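Form P-L/3: holo structure prediction, ligand zinc ion.
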Amino acid sequence: MKNKSGIIYTLNRKTTEELASILEANGITAVAYHAGLDAKLRSKRQDDFLSEDVQVIVATIAFGMGIDKPDIRFVIHYNIPKSIENYYQETGRAGRDGLEGKCVLYYSHKDVSKLEHLMRDKPLSEREVGAQLINETVAYAESGVCRRKVILSYFGEHYLEENCGNCDNCKHPKEKIEAKAEVVVALKALKELDEKFATDYVVNIVSGKLTPQVKMFRHEGLTCFGAGKGRDAHFWNSLVRQMILEGLIRKDIEEYGVLKLTDKGNDFTKKPKNFTIVLNNKFEDAVGDDEEAGEGNGEGAAADDKLFEMLKELRQKQAKKVNLVPWVIFLETSLQDMATMFPTTLQELEKCQGVSGPKARRYGKPFIELIAQYVEANNIVKPDDFVMKSVVNKSGNKVYIIQQTDKKYRWKPLPRTRDGRSRNSWRKWKPSPPVEPNSISVMRSTKCLTKLTRRKLSNTSKPAKPRPWT
Ligand SMILES: [Zn+2]
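OUTPUT (holo model):
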């Protein structure tokens, strides 16, 4: 199962070169691909990739147009993609033969700022469109809803399955919150605001935030102002997003994302029904969490979800035995490391995050035994070296995860869905007919960076200001 083909998309040329050399240093044949290379070299690299002399191509977003390699096993977005269209098209290259196709998107607020920075010299109209596209991608990344549902809805299609079983949000479902009353609050607020404002403003109004803009419009006197004070902005943002997904409201793209009521929304006001939502993922929490983190803050960060769940169960059982709460035995982040690095000796176990020598000796035995059985039963090729050979230190962990995607997975091919089409004129590209990849997930970028390399890395990254999305 070695030598699986994959594409890694990054935002800039420099990263493609750096990443390719790190991969090379770690025994993965990889080359960079970007517009700065001369045409001859580019086509050679593309040919090498097609003929499998090169396993991984690290590219800026320009790569892959017209490429139809059926057995690309993974597509990794090392940085946030520029738009959902790009993302859909790029992930659509994975598993075109209907077999395994794994897609991972690393997300951090920092990347969002970088993208915005890249657009600073563009003309205003282009910047506005660009900003909307980025907002959609941010919303996609932060959404706690089924990824397939979000993507298809973006292209005007409805995905009706409750659980696709193949995205990180479906594999780690979150608590559902009943929000019937709040939906009514939001719908009434939209009406009172004459359907003339975008998400951010509506959220400020219902949560009662007196901003200069609110004052300017003298909206603090409206009955909807502060009508939803009991909930925070995070809740309201999540709610609005899911109201759009369910078709109660829509975003008017021609009018800068102003929210409008739909017929379905009007019906809802007259006759409210149950409406459950899940909160968006909070990515800002992940920044700088290389300290011992608490529970439940890293869903989807293990390379092997199945093993991760098994380890969690085992932890539960062991905790009961000694009458302790589970996280005292091992932190969830430690279990994630175990399900990524497959330690089968106590020494290897100690290399996992949050596992000290005494802890490994006291609680570790059943865990490494379980992992050893699992590794054996699934023919998993363990990485022979737990230390990342790194050329550029800070990219270590991502590379590690990339190495892990090279393991044996047994993916069930999914029925193919129709390809998406753009609805709106401002969306310039039409995606070539992509195939749904059979596994999609979004990971916290910063967390991944700090996770395995935290001993080497000084914590220099200050959290970028969280980007509000509309
Ligand atoms: Zn899903």
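COMMENT: The pocket of zinc ion is lined by residues 146-148, 164, 167, 169-170 (CB under 6 Å).
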